[in-house]
Amino acid sequence: MGLILMAAHFLAAQTVLLKQNPEASMGDSNSHLFRNNAEHRGTPAQVNDIRLIRYDSSQVKIRMSDYTIYYNKETTGGFLFIYPNGDSTGALATSFLSGSNFDLLRPADVTSITAIDTEDSLLIEFTTEKSWAIFHTSLVFYKLNPGLMHWQTSLRLLERHAVSSLDKEVLFYNFGTESLSPTSITKYADQDGYTAGLTYFYEADFLKSTILYFQDFSLSNPYYRWIHASPENTVGSSDANFGYSLPTSSANLPKNNTYILSSAYLYLDRGRPASELEMAERFLQGLSAIYKHIYKPVLQKRDWETIAGRTLQDLASDKCGVTVNGHKFLRAYVDIPRYDSA
Q: What pLDDT shows up at residue 134?
């Protein structure tokens, strides 16, 4: 557990219509097939273990290592589902953001689904149009890191408007009851205050996997500044949901401005850790995969030798020192009138 805390502090700086089978009403006759050469080999996943099975203007299906990712305007009820390959009793269900005025995968509002399959990654893009805004969500799968997926949602205002958020954006869906359903989790780590926006846990009922979720707050700084809010204690997990509660305010966002509202990473690994050591190893493996892709500010070079020399000159000046009883002392404050004290 100590390894998890150390890594978390490090990153801190930096009623649905689906049937028992989520593809029951789907056929392949009009599908576009995109396949990589590598076949599924199980966890740990291998390079290129990501396949775009089908997509068109109403659906998309991806195979990622031990998991299937599926969205269909007619059968998934406004959610993207993430579930284990083969027989599965349930899934993770998300629409990328949780809020009464979001509902980003509502079929009537999704105007475009595109896919770009390259040597290194698979990119799925969703465009969602509301009367007041246009949302763009990029869903990325990394072929060098199967098990890792990333979604980023931006908002462009067509009119001044406030946004509202409800709760975490990833829910649990039971295929048997055809409804959202609580699950059983064993929690290992959560965001605490202003620490890194992550949650890490084992989910026992549907995916039977360890799940590491990370929210990259840096890209949302312009949004936070405008609404005068911070992402304190916004990421967490429970038996009902997990993910990110977007900070909101009653203030209207300005027209024509674009904001990144969420940049989330999800790392999945099948099975329960056999020991605390394995639990920590999985965490570090997921964290290292995420860290390769998160936003990192450009490092500014500093001439520390020159700066140090100037600092020594300043400390040697009369304004920074005082002599008391024949001994030279540095002042606690520069250029104060109490000449007989340090």
A: 96
